[in-house]
Amino acid sequence: MLNYFLTEEQQFMKDVAKEIAVKKIKPVSAHHDETGEFPWEIVKAIAEADLFRVFIPDEYGGMAGDSAIMNMCVVTEELSKVDGGISLAFAATGLGTFPILVSASDEQKKKWLPRIADGTIAAFGLTEANAGSDVAGMQTRAVEDGDSFIINGTKQWITNGGEADIYSVFAVTDPDRGPRGVSCFVVEKGTEGFSFGKKEDKMGIRASATRELVFQDCRVPKENMIGRRGTGFFTAMKTFDQSRPGVAAQALGIASGALELSVDYSRERVQFGQPISANQGLRFMLADMAMKVESARALVYSVARWIDSHPDEKTTAYSAMAKCWASDIAMEVTTNAVQVFGGYGYMKEYPVEKMMRDAKITQIYEGTNQIQRDEIGRGLVAEAARKK
C-alpha cells in the first residue's frame, strides 16, 4: 500500500480499527454471516475504542477535526477488510448521522450527536418500495398537527433498521411541491406508532440488519424536523455527497481484504510441486487486482479529502465516481479471488465467497452504479456548460 500521508491521529484510528477487525471481528465473522445475528459485541468494542467519534465534530463529543469524511473512510476500509457486513454497524451510523450534520440546528446537534459519539447507532430512512433513487415517488406523509407532525408510511431496506435508536427519516410534507415538498425528521426508536418489519434474509452483508420501518400515526415533535420544511431533498442529496465515499471505502476494504487473502493463498497452495504463485498467468491476475485496488484507494482518499477541505462545494460527481469505481472493482476483485482459490474459493470454509457476496450490494445501495454514472455524466455536461 502506498503512503497516503495519514495524520498521526488517522494512523492511530486505522491501527485501532485493524486490531478490532483482526481480534474481534475475524473470529466471529462466519458465525454472524451464517446466523444473521447483529454484532452488538463488535458495536460495543467500536464504541469503547471511540471510533464512533471520528466523524462527529469536536464540539459535540467527537474528534473529527477537519477530516470527518477521511476519518470515516479510513476506519470503514479497515473494518471491511475482514467483514463488510459487520462494518456497516459503523458505516451506516455515519449515513444516519449526516442529515443531522448537514442540516440540524446547534440545539439539535447537541441533543443527538453526543449520543452517537458515545456509540448510539443511527440509520437513514429514505428508500421506499416505489421510491429508491426516484425521491419524487415517495409516499410516506408527514401531516402537521399542532406542535407535531403525524407520519404514516413505510421505508424499505433500511440498514441498521430495528437496531438503531436514532433514525433520519424523510417524508412528504407538501405533496404538491414535488421534491421541494420533502422534509427530514429525526425519529427515535420507541416512539409510539413507529415499528419495524421482518429482518430481511440477504445474499450478503448478512450480519447487518436490514428491515422495513413502519409508521402508523407516528407523532413526532416539530422540533425534530431537521432543516426547514421542504428542504429534505437537499438534505438527502447533500448527505449522499458525503456518505458515498463511505460506501466506496467499504467496497475498497472488501476488495483489499480479498486481494491479501489471494496473495497469501497463492504462496501456500502447491500444485505440480510448486506454489501456484509460480504461474505467470496467476501473477498477472494478482497484478491486475492490485492495480485496481490501489487506484480505487487513491480515488476514494482523494475525494474524501476534497470534501473535507471544500465543505461548501458541490461534490456530487466526485462522490459518485468514488462509489461507482470502488464498488465495481470490489465485485471484480472478489470474483477473481474466488477464482484464485479455485474449488476452495466456492466453499464457505474460506472467506472469499462471502466477500464476493458482500461486494455486490456496494454496487446497489445509496444509488445503483447506473445512477452514479448518470450523476457523473450530468456533472460533466453541467461543468462544460459553465465554462462557456
Question: Any key phrases for this structure?
Answer:
alpha+beta, 4-stranded antiparallel β-sheet, 4-stranded mixed β-sheet, 3 domains, Butyryl-CoA Dehydrogenase, subunit A, domain 3, 10 strands, Butyryl-Coa Dehydrogenase, subunit A, domain 1, 11 helices, Butyryl-CoA Dehydrogenase, subunit A, domain 2, 388 residues
Can you put this structure into words, describing what you see?
The structure is a single chain. With 388 residues, the protein is α+β, with helices and mostly antiparallel strands. The protein has three domains: 8-121, Acyl-CoA dehydrogenase/oxidase, N-terminal domain (Butyryl-Coa Dehydrogenase, subunit A, domain 1); 123-231, Beta Barrel (Butyryl-CoA Dehydrogenase, subunit A, domain 2), CATH 2.40.110.10; 233-387, Butyryl-CoA Dehydrogenase, subunit A, domain 3 (Up-down Bundle). It is 51% helix and 15% strand. The chain has eleven helices and ten strands. Strands 1-4-5-8 form a four-stranded mixed beta sheet. It has a four-stranded antiparallel beta sheet with strand order 2-3-7-6, with helices on one face. The mean pLDDT is 96.
Chain-wise SSE layout:
Layout: H1 8-25, H2 29-35, H3 40-48, H4 68-80, H5 88-103, H6 106-117, E1 122-125, E2 141-145, E3 148-159, E4 166-172, E5 182-188, E6 194-199, E7 210-221, E8 225-226, H7 232-268, E9 270-271, E10 274-275, H8 280-309, H9 316-341, H10 352-361, H11 369-387
Parallel strand pairs: 1-4
Antiparallel strand pairs: 2-3, 3-7, 4-5, 5-8, 6-7, 9-10
Helix pairs in contact: 1-4, 4-7, 4-8, 5-6, 5-7, 7-8, 7-9, 7-10, 8-9, 9-10, 9-11
